[in-house]
Request: fold
Amino acid sequence: NAGVTQTPKFQVLKTGQSMTLQCAQDMNHNSMYWYRQDPGMGLRLIYYSASEGTTDKGEVPNGYNVSRLNKREFSLRLESAAPSQTSVYFCASSGPGGEDAYEQYFGPGTRLTVT
Amino acid sequence: AQSVSQHNHHVILSEAASLELGCNYSYGGTVNLFWYVQYPGQHLQLLLKYFSGDPLVKGIKGFEAEFIKSKFSFNLRKPSVQWSDTAEYFCAVNGISGGYNKLIFGAGTRLAVHP
Reply:
């Protein structure tokens, strides 16, 4: 079991460029999440997907789009990167039901710098 | 609105000192509570969790936390810290909001343990 994987690990973009962050999980989880982590602010939810085929906005969705490609994969797209999007991005997933639904498992993160 | 407060942003201890990190939350319903740890350069890992039952929960690496419902608190403790405990610690609260399992994180506490 690889758990939650993310690519790339590091990325530098110029303002206005676009990119897609990839996330995949092999735990057969229904729900997947994208967070950003900024110093002193903890993790903030960008978008989530409660199940395959559904996506919803989180706390800080502006400037991002997501795609739940299938049950395993959940991608995050920056259409026109801005310096304010410099951050570390984490993908997470949570299980099908019961107590498993509440515990989230995190990927290794993508460190993105926008210049 | 739900929120999580971690009182200490930075804590510096010597090895063998005792640790207590404060966490308070605001949420009116049934909550599930978590402490996650992020070692330097790594992703978030679950330290311990509380769903129900004994309010004193034990996690990995000698950590424990006590849920005090009347105080809306879930403080993390360890009797004797080690240099390897140097990391950032995040308290998180989970509750149902908008039909999905929403995890709210505190801002984090950076712990530095000196040999």
